[in-house]
Amino acid sequence: MISMLAAVLVLAALVFGFAWLMLRAERLLGADELHNAKATVTLINSINNLLPQTQCGQCGFPGCRPYAEAISRGENINRCPPGGAHTIKRIAALLDLPVVPLDTSHGWHLPKRIASIREHECIGCTKCIQACPVDAIVGAPKRMHTVIVADCTGCDLCVDPCPVDCIDMLPLPIMSAHASVTVVVQK
Amino acid sequence: MNNVSHKVSSPFLKPVYSVPGVMATVLLALLPAAVCYTWFFGAGFLINLLITSTLGLLLEALVMRARGKPVFFYLGDLSILVTAALLSFALPPGSPWWIATSGIFIACFFGKHVFGGLGHNVFNPAALAYVSLLILFPLQMTGWYLPGSGSYAEAPIDPLSAYGIYTSLQLSFPWLRDFALTPFPVRPDGFATATPLIEYKFAAPARILMAESDGFTLWERGARTGWEMLSVSFTLGGLFLLWRGIISWHIPFTVVAVVFVLSSLFYQPGQEAIFGSPWLHLFSTSTLIGAFFIATDPASSPSSALGKVIYGALIGIAMYSIRIWGSYLDSVALAILAVNMCSPLIDQLTARTPLGHPSRFKRWLSAWKKTA
Amino acid sequence: MTHLRRSFFITKYLKPWVLRLTGKAGWATTLHALPGGIAPASHKALSLQQKIIRMPSGELGLPAQLILPLRQHLGPDSALVVSVGDYVYKNQLIAAANGEKGVGLHAPSSGYISSINYALLPMNEAHDPERSWQQALNRHQTAIVIDTDGKHAVQPGLLAANCDWRVRSPDELRQAVFDAGICGMGGAGFPTAIKLGASAIKTLIINGAECEPFITADEALMREHAAEVIEGALIIQRICGAQSCVIGIEADKYQAIDAIQGVINQIMSELQPANAGQAGLSLTLIPPIYPSGGEKQLIRIMTGIQVASGKRPVEVGVLCHSVATARAVYKAVSAGEPLTSRITTLTGHALKTAVNVEVMIGTPVSHLLDFAGVQHAQLQRVLVGGPLMGYEASDLDTPVLKTSNCLLAGSELDIAPAVTQSKPHRDCIRCDFCATVCPVKLQPQTLYFAARHQHHDASVENGLFDCIECGACAVVCPSHIPLVNYYREEKAVIRTGNDTAQQAYWQSLFEKHQQRLSVNAIDQQQRKLDKLQHKLEAIAVGEPLTKTALTKTPVPPVVAPTASKSTEQIKQEIEAAVARTRAKKAELQKKNDATQDADK
């Protein structure tokens, strides 16, 4: 009985002793600060990966990464309308925060749309090109501009600067269930 | 965290079952066995149950606190109480207190939370704890104080008398023996024995069983009666669970059927000491608690019906094989642990085919044709 | 607790078996067991105590406004043919079918069009192409608003020729169905005319199962208008050329069964005895199990055919229509009436009177709730559809659509209480209850893990897209996991292609954009610096600072010299500007380097 207790105690002492030593060693080697800085960058990256990357700025920050940085500093997680409830849930799971409904003062969660320039109306002012966060609009001054559909995130940012209102946000064609299954399997 | 925001989409119907409800039903199903166990083997069981339950709740709370989860929400699922109860059934009543203590510790940490908590465990926590204890403390774990038998008769552990309860307490907490009103009557190791099968297995004199099988009455406290009545009460509990829809028939039925068939095949009258009769295999051992309560643990068993049948059959075969040809003392928990490891694979191989998909056979056939 | 399971066993297996032995009519045919299913308390008696109340009547008046979204069906939005301020008559076309796959929309009552840009609030977060009427309400979608004048006037001289359908050709009949703007009224809203165009149909199934709790619209319809339903079924049979027409009704709808059986017997007796066998009209009773009323589920029960994943039932020669659609077809063909009203159940314990009403399409939910006397103290929420497949009407101006078969004002007795705060669910304990109730034989728990961890391939392999979202798994889940929510989200993620590859691509585009901007900013400072240096040199040489030279150099205004400043002053100012610009450039450079380092 006593010998058993002694064995348990000795083993426990060894375990905790070594754990404490390792902790001290880490501190002494000064890895702490670097570790923290790296951890913050990793955290920002992982939050950023959860955001929809539309770079739409509806959250009030100039892009998804800036918003991810703000979240890591304690900003509310419900300011991303393109991500919707789904993104909020995933960020909440990552940061272990309670799930909150979307703050609709920043916009509603709507299905993805794509910008489309009515090309015969375009005057070639390049204002939309400057506004596009992902360089998805091509064109030259006084020449017609157009949208690269594959690159467009549907952020809406080009609509306001256009002086002749020739940009429409069009809904994507809805794939049938069967078609989308094939797409996924092929990936 | 499993946080969900407003439940805005269907279905809106109220849920029918709840985890605490399921666990409470299992506890209810264990009640007849608990009464039976106490009646035949003394208050030691209740002491073990008390230790495992209290410590289990405490440990669970600590772990949940350490994992940063809401403590009372997770304690409320009652799963640790089920583990504690099943473990108490596996422990010899009258084993020292630290057996139960280390048992629930192993079950809670290594059986459950190492894998991520309820629902994520690969092994049944109670079975894992029991097998670990068997390996760690073989002496204490095989010391069953058989009431009313042999030289033990002078110290009946009657759960209804103060004397019997005090004796049980003395067995569990050895320091109490110093405060004995009368001299402590038993020398523990001398009277140690295990389940009847172990008696057979190690060719120990099967005299207790032989003597009692001549004419035993149901409620008389005796080793054989005790074991058989316990098995019957486990069966009752199991049938209750089946009726309440908590477990499906597949696993218990297959385990019992396979053990019955195997033991009938190998049994020859007159060779009880080697193979044992089917009756003995089913009712004088822990086969039935294993079949109804431990093998059916949802987290560590496969989910499809076919998978359950395969899983049950494997458990039955492993149980019989370890018991007859293996060198371990107990086969039920070991067999279940071994087959628990196979259950993810079984799950994968026996996944159900959704309606409208090609059947499993067709898929195999097309895969075969592709390779050939 | 297990009431659900035991009664389920009895209704699913025991009762059909006993009834088949006793030879009761309707049970004679062999049924094929549907895997899974649940038998929740039906609460159907609630709304069946009264007869159907028609909308423009003394009891139930017309609403002041009718709101008609342009998309109430599966397919392209209907195209507007009216404009604001127009007066429309009842049954007048207000939005035409957009191509062959479209569905037209007709005015349910007469009045002026007050708006065609009515925006409905987004209603349901999860959007799902298979249930496009939900999606229709997601968007700020165009709806026509008619201010009713109460006259309920039909356009003069627009009486349809009422000729016998038996003498008209199938194509003519199908055209009549198309013109009436009929879409499936059971829930999915698939255009009926397209379905009727399918060839090689052997069996026509008329779906009177209505398995969801609370909903009695179809049952009431069969009780009171059995003849119209059967007539509609015969018209559909004629259009699609099916050899047999089977009407499937859940066995606990006794009065509806009697009514339908009576009509069938009458039709059979009218036929010549020689032709009686050819008519192929029969009634089949099916066990009252949820979700036996699903299209593929009903086909499986009644014919034993498993419709392959991703295929439509018409491809195996079976056509399935609900009784409500059959009646709409009858009205369209025999009286030329377009689909402008439907029978909807008003039910729930939060209502004073639960009743079936025949309402105009486009009636706001609030109008009907006022009629039924909603008790706000008990009201948890208003559901459009049943408690298992319906969706929540968060906005009570939501109109009744062509697919809305029920309005459930749920009290605490009926449905799970509305949770205002986020509430955690327990972990999955792999109890397998969900798998035993799944009518598609999926493994809901495997799907749950795949969906939750965004394993898209695993989700699809495990049949995510075969899930009919019936909700049976979520109802029996002891951990109270909102399984269907997880599946819907996963479906939406897979469908919109909102996956990590696309996101990573956008992210890289954004990073390149940012990098370009920062390099541009540095370049700009460099150019500024160059110009300032140039100017300094010019001063050193002693060139006069002409006005033209100044206007060409876009230097900051502080540098702009005035006549009062001496050359020395100007020089000093330029030097200060050079220092500022250098500092700014260095700062930008440093920032750029830092971000590049961080990226590395």
Account of the 3D structure:
The complex is a heterotrimer of chains A (187), B (372) and C (600). By secondary structure, chain A is mainly α. Chain A has helices at 2-28, 31-50, 64-72, 84-95, 127-131, 177-186, and strands spanning 113-117, 137-138, 146-147, 167-171. Chain A contains six helices and four strands, in the order ααααβαβββα. In chain A, a hairpin with a 7-residue loop joins strand 2 and strand 3 (146-147). The longest helix of chain A has 27 residues, at 2-28. The relative contact order of chain A is 0.10. Chain B folds into two domains: 17-192, no CATH class; 202-352, no CATH class. In chain B, helix 1 (19-41) packs antiparallel against helix 11 (223-244) and helix 4 (79-90) runs parallel beside helix 6 (125-136). The termini of chain B are far apart. Chain C has 600 residues and is an alpha/beta fold. Chain C has three domains: 3-25 and 44-153 and 168-384, NADH-ubiquinone oxidoreductase 51kDa subunit (Rossmann fold); 433-496, no CATH class; 505-599, no CATH class. In chain C, helix 3 (170-179) packs across helix 6. Chain C is elongated. Strand 1 (3-4) of chain B pairs antiparallel with strand 18 (423-424) of chain C, so a sheet runs across the interface.
By secondary-structure content and strand pairing, the structural class of chain A works out as mainly alpha
Tally the structural domains of chain B.
2
The assembly state of the depicted protein chains is heterotrimer
From the N-terminal CA to the C-terminal CA of chain B, the straight-line distance is 48 Å
Unreliable stretches of chain B, pLDDT < 50, 5 or more residues?
147-156, 186-219
Q: Main sheet of chain A: which strands, in order across? A: 1-4
Q: Major sheet of chain A, described briefly?
A: 2 strands, antiparallel
Helix content of chain A: 40-55%
Biggest protein-protein contact in the assembly? B-C, 46 and 75 residues
Number of strands of chain A: 4
